[in-house]
Design a protein that fits this description.
Blueprint lengths: L20 E3 L5 E3 L14 E6 L2 E6 L10 E5 L10 E10 L2 E8 L4 E6 L16 E2 L8 E4 L20 E2 L9 E6 L20 E5 L10 E2 L5 E2 L5 E5 L9 E4 L1
Parallel strand pairs: 4-5
Antiparallel strand pairs: 1-2, 3-4, 6-7, 7-8, 9-10, 10-17, 11-12, 12-16, 13-16, 14-15
Length: about 250
């Protein structure tokens, strides 16, 4: 490349300036990678970062992407979802997901960690709180919520009857139906059972610590007491009800 000038005009064999390109041995000019327009991004998208074999752009509302190589990630303002993104100051993979710093039109900046979720699948049991992406990405994730009102939580020494429905003290996404009891006055035990989570599984609860019946005894007051074993058998019907989904940003 030379900046020399000859009288009348520049020599056709010289190059005055070259930006983002190079000269081949044959004397031709080749643009460097990255200078060719790859696609036209839809209006309203901001930023661009490569991650997991895709190009990711950002917006405050879902934007349809016509090029399958590009993914739109929705970043919503925490208090005003209608506020548009003014600029993306930072976007880089961090611990497997994109860490993004977005500036909004109201002058605020917010930090996001854009997790990537599995797509929704048919005939699948989802526990409340689990999140999925739709099979056709629209910029949102969805969280499974409870289909109905909560049932009573298990407690010790509570009267039991067939068809009673309870939930574990630590929720595991299932509820349990009492399908059988024994004894004149069946009650729950003093120790909470280990609740199974397999579809259709059962668990047996006893009000004593052993599995053998305890023979009747007579108290010091001469009154006869029936201290026989009391069983509660619970069947787990979890997953038989549809899961409503709550949209989350």
């Amino acid at each position: 490349m030379t900046r020399l000038r000859y009288k009348g005009r520049a020599s056709p064999a010289t190059l005055y300036d070259c930006l983002n390109a190079y000269i081949t041995i044959a004397g031709t000019i080749k643009p460097r990678p990255g200078t060719v327009v790859d696609t036209n991004l839809p209006p309203g998208t901001k930023g661009l970062v490569a991650h997991n074999g895709k190009h990711h752009v950002f917006s405050h509302v879902p934007v349809a992407m016509t090029d399958e190589r590009y993914v739109n990630v929705v970043l919503r303002h925490p208090s005003n979802p209608d506020t548009a993104i003014r600029a993306i100051h930072f976007a880089k993979p961090f611990m497997g997901y994109l860490y993004v710093v977005a500036a909004f039109e109201d002058g605020t900046q917010w930090h996001y960690w854009a997790e990537e979720l599995d797509p929704w699948e048919a005939d699948t049991i989802y526990i409340p709180g689990e999140r999925v992406f739709p099979t056709v990405i629209n910029g949102y994730a969805y969280k499974a919520t409870r289909a109905g009102s909560p049932s009573p939580v298990w407690a010790a020494s509570v009267q039991r009857a067939v068809n009673d429905v309870i939930e574990p003290t630590v929720s595991n996404g299932y509820e349990y139906v009492c399908i059988s009891v024994t004894g004149a006055n069946p009650i729950s035990g003093t120790t909470e059972p280990d609740w199974p989570t397999e579809e259709g599984a059962t668990v047996t609860e006893t009000s004593y610590g052993d599995s053998d019946p305890v023979p009747p005894t007579t108290g010091d007051d001469g009154i006869y007491y029936d201290t026989g074993k009391i069983d509660d058998r619970y069947k787990n019907p979890g997953g038989s009800l549809p899961n409503p989904w709550e949209q989350i940003p």
